[in-house]
Request: fold
Amino acid sequence: MIELRHITKRFNGVAALEDVSLEVKPGERLALIGENGAGKSSLMNVLYGLYQPDQGEVCFDGQVVKVKTPAEALARGVGMVHQHFTLVPTLTVTENVVLGHEPTKAGRLDLVRARKEVDDTCAKFGFQLDTGAVVRELSVGSQQKVEIVKALHRGVKTLILDEPTAVLTPQEADELFAVTRRLSDEGLAVVLISHKLKEVMAFSTRIAVMRRGKKVAEVVPGETSPEHLAQLMISLSSRERGEGRGEGPNQAPPSSGAVPDQPLTRPPATLSPLPQGEGTLQLTHLTAQGLHDLTLTLHPGEILGIAGVDGNGQRELAEVLTGLRPWTSGTLTFEHAPITRWTPHLARAHGVTHIPEDRLRRALITDLTVEENVSLGRHTQPPFAKGPLIDFPGRRALTTSLLETNDVRPRDPQLRAGGLSGGNQQKLVVGRELDSNPKVLIVVQPTRGLDIAAVAAVRAQLFTQRARGCAVLLISLDLDEVLELSDRVLVMYAGRITGEFTRAQFDERVLGRRMLGVVDA
Reply:
C-alpha cells in the first residue's frame, strides 16, 4: 500500500496542494478527478518524485520514504505514463522500452537479449506489439502501449495514467481499459487522471475528487453519477466564493459558474449553414506534403469536424489553412477569390484565426507576460497601440477583461505565461483568438487538458461563433467531442478524406473504423 499523508505543496506562495491524504491500494483502479489546477497531477508528481512536498510524507507499506526522483519512484514500483509521450520516435519499440536499463554483453548493448526480454513482457501482460518496429511508424494507440510496457518492464506495482484516452479511438480506448483491468486483476494498482466522467465511472473501483488543492470526497462508482461528480468537482459554497471574507492576493477566484445537470454539449439549435459568400473557405483537389487530393468546403455558420487518429494529415490541413504550409497542386478559395499566396499574416488579415494544437510552441511565448501574450498578432493595432507607441493602459484593460471573461487564473496580467497551468494557458489562447471576432476559426484540440467547467465554457464559445456566422473547422482527436460539436464530420486517414457524415449519420463505431482505415462494405 502507498499512503500520501497530509501533502502540501506551494509554488510562488500559492498552494497547489493543501493537506491532502490519499491511499493507493494493490489491485484497485483509482480515478483522480477535479478541475484544472485542482492538484491532481501535482499530487501524482509528488508520488512520482517530480515534486518534493513542502509538508507531509509518502509511505510505502507503512514506511516513510523520500522519493526525490522518478528513478527512485520506479525503483519503488511506481510508473507514470504522461499525457504527452516521452518516447524517442526514431528508436524501435525494444530500444525505447530498455532505454536507460539496457542489457549488455561484453560491455555493449545486447539487442537480441533486449528484444527477447521485451517480447516476454508483452506476452506476460497481453500486449500485441511489434517490438522491432520504429516508434514513429506506430499509431498513437500503439505508442501508448509502448509507454505502458516500458513501465511494466521495470516491474512497477503502481501505474499512473494521465489522460490516457485523449488521443485514442473508441476501439483503442476499449482495448486500453481491458488491459488495465487485467493489470489490476493481477494485483497492480492503476491510477487514472481523467476529465471524462463517463470513462471514470466505467473504469474505476474508487474515485477521489479534488478541488483547489484539497481532496474533497471519495466515492465508489455504484454510489454516484456523472452529474454528482461534476457537482463535487466544481460546486462552490459561500465560503469558497469568498462571501464574508477578503480574498488574499494569491487566492484564485472561483469558477465563473456551475455545470448544469445536462452539460451543454450538442449545438443548442440546428442551424443551416449560411450561403456561400463571406467567410466561405474552399479546397479543391488540394495536395501538399502530407495531404492528397483534398476537396472540402467550410461554410459560414457551421462547425465542420475533422476526425482521425493523430498523424493522418490533420496537422498539415490546419497548417495549409492558416498559411503555415504551401500546397503543390489544387486550389484554395476564400470568399470566391482564388488564393495564390497564403501566409499567416494574410490569413489573419482575411479574418482567419487559429487555436493551435500545441499552445507552447505555436500560441504562447512563455517567457513573456500574460498581457504581452494577449497582444500577440495585434500588437500594432488599437487598443494595444497608438500609432507607433504601445498603449499600456489600453492593453492592460483589455487583458484584465479577457482574463475575467475566460476565467483564467490567477487574474494577473503581469504573470509570466509559463507560470499558468496548462488548462489556464489554453483558456488564455482561446479567449485571445475569439476576441478578434473571426470570419473563419481553425481550432485544433481546443479542450485538451481542460476540466469539465472549462470544457463547457469553450464549447459554448464555439457555438456562439457558429451562431454569429463564423465558419468553424474543428480538429480534435477526441471523437466524442467531434460528434458532440459538429454539424458535419469529415474523416481523415493517411492524408485523405475517407468519409463525410451528416449529424443524422453519426455513429462512433463506424467513424472509429474509418479512422483506422477500415471501409465498411
